[in-house]
Write a structure and sequence with these properties.
The protein is α+β, with helices and mostly antiparallel strands. It has 11 helices and 23 strands. The protein has 3 domains: 198 residues; 242 residues, Rossmann fold (3-Layer(aba) Sandwich); 59 residues, no CATH class.
Length: 521
């Protein structure tokens, strides 16, 4: 569609002068009802030469300016939001020039330092104050937002940002310390050529299952209908030498490790295992593939997700009686679930941890935050503020039962939907679990891991107490693929081969250690 048929608002956010975000927000009409689209490029501040992570969003606005539905497509995942009335309003009727009309967009770069890119057409003030209620799409909560005129005639908002207006009263920039966002809006601005189709097609090639046999797995828990399969060698069950259950890291994806255009590369490892005669049990997490929650769900639940994998094992109980115990493979936070399953499920023979944490999640995430902030080169003030906010979040996760405006700070309250997940995870110490585990374990760590660090490797190695079962892989990063929206590179393939080789060697080593009851030493 020609750009002159609608309003386009372009924003550019820079951190220490380096581009972090570029976005184009376009309304097909300046009167409602209308369709809106957003293009977003998020650039890596640590690796500026990498291709940006791309997001494309489509929204429908009714005659009152209410967003009735949003489809969000991303090169790192796909999410569908459905908003009810009154949660998010874009006031366009009457044209761009009316004071009081505004639209807003909230973007978070990374999980540590949020960078807000606001796009507002004329903002109306009363007695130097403009109050709004925005809906934060990331946290799924409403959020109060205020812009207030200062004594020096500047304008500051709820987040301590300085808003810059031109002579006509239009917002043209936002700044806070080292972060500066500039914007322009016009009916003559163009938008990127890429959109939904291009973003989805940026995904890596779909996994080729044609050379393998797959046996469906379907079961129900109290919370969800779960579907998955067992990836088998070419010869089917008759050629199976061992059985494994694969548990991926934090996130929502299908049995292949794919969500939208994000491909974690899990299926690459599954196929390597099947080629060696190892059957791989894997499931679609709800909202992906063929799995779904029984009711709409916003709050993630670690224990509930653990039950999905336990249910997968129980659904295979008859088949596993003839093939022997299961080796559970856990990647990243999936390693924590693998340790929990091994401790409670008799049929689990061993645990294989790949780039798993060695300490509780709050300690790990503080380390991640410190490293991220240091890499961004933020000011000492911003560094302190971000760490204090994270500390406050984990404090209230652990000590506050009922989250409300009266009990939790305003900048922490929007994270309420994640509190249950983190409360459950904080109670788990992976290193302690491993040290108490009375089953064989293999620990694999990538020396290029950017999310789990040397301290975690040290703790796991000490808990394991078996140097021959602790493997370091020089070129392995946290994920199995360097660029999760692209096909595997030669380095990725080499790392996958090393990981799979270590897993197979470990499984083979257990053959002579099987006890009469079927367990292993």
């Amino acid at each position: 569609m020609p750009p002159e048929t609608g309003l386009v608002i372009y924003t550019e956010t820079r951190v220490n002068g380096q581009i972090a975000i570029r976005s184009w927000l376009r309304f097909e009409s300046i009167e409602c009802p209308c369709e809106a689209s957003i293009w977003v490029d998020i650039h890596s501040l640590e690796k500026p030469d990498e291709l940006p992570e791309r997001h494309f969003c489509e929204a429908t606005l009714d005659s009152q300016g209410e967003v009735s539905g949003i489809d969000f497509y991303s090169s790192s995942g796909t999410t569908h939001f459905r908003f009810g009335n009154g949660q998010f309003r874009v006031n366009l009727p009457g044209g761009v020039g009316r004071r009081g009309d505004f639209c807003a967009e909230v973007i978070s770069v990374g999980s540590v330092v949020p960078v807000f890119a606001w796009t507002l057409s004329k903002v109306g003030f009363q007695d130097g104050v403009c109050d709004m209620t925005l809906f934060n799409c990331d946290r799924l909560v409403e959020q109060a937002y205020r812009v207030e005129r200062q004594a020096d005639a500047s304008y500051k908002d709820t987040f301590g940002q300085t808003l810059i207006f031109d002579d006509a009263g239009c917002l043209v920039g936002i700044s806070k310390q080292d972060v500066v966002t500039r914007l322009q809006w016009s009916t003559a601005l163009s938008v990127p050529a890429w959109g939904k189709r291009q973003v989805l097609e940026a995904r890596a090639d779909s996994p080729d299952q044609s050379h393998y046999a797959c046996e469906p797995v379907v079961f129900d828990t109290h919370a969800a209908h779960i579907a998955g399969d067992v990836l088998l060698p070419t010869g089917g069950w008759d050629s199976v030498k061992a059985v494994s259950l694969f548990i991926g890291g934090t996130g929502a994806y299908d049995r292949y490790g794919i969500c939208g255009s994000m491909d974690l590369g899990y299926h690459e490892m599954h196929q390597r295992l099947a080629d060696a005669g190892v059957a791989v049990l894997r499931i679609d997490l709800p909202g992906n593939g063929e799995s779904r929650y029984v009711q709409d769900k916003v709050e993630p639940d670690f224990r509930e997700q653990l039950a999905f994998y336990e249910g997968a094992l129980e659904s295979m109980d008859g088949r596993l009686a003839s093939t022997g115990p299961v080796h559970v493979i856990g990647h990243s936070m999936g390693g924590v679930m693998a340790l929990e399953l091994a401790a409670r499920c008799r049929i689990v023979a061993s645990v294989i941890l790949i780039n798993a944490p060695g300490r509780p999640v709050d300690a790990l995430m503080r380390d991640q935050a410190v490293r991220k902030l240091d890499a961004l080169g933020v000011s000492e003030t911003q560094r302190r503020e971000e760490l204090e906010k994270q500390d406050a979040f984990f404090y209230h996760v652990q000590h506050t039962k009922d989250w409300s405006e009266a009990t939790v700070p305003a900048d922490v309250l929007p994270l309420k939907s994640e509190s249950l997940w983190f409360r459950q995870l904080m109670a788990v110490d992976p290193g302690a679990l491993l040290s108490r585990l009375e089953k064989p374990a293999l620990v694999i760590v990538g020396q290029q891991d950017e999310q789990v660090f040397d301290e975690d490797a040290r703790l796991l190695a000490a808990a394991l107490g078996r140097p021959e079962r602790f493997v370091r892989i020089r070129d392995l990063a946290h994920h199995f693929k360097a660029i999760r929206s692209r096909s595997v590179t030669e380095t990725d393939k080499a790392c996958l081969d090393e990981v799979t080789g270590a897993v197979l060697t470990f499984m083979d080593s257990l053959n002579g250690l099987q006890r009469e009851d079927g367990s292993f030493q």
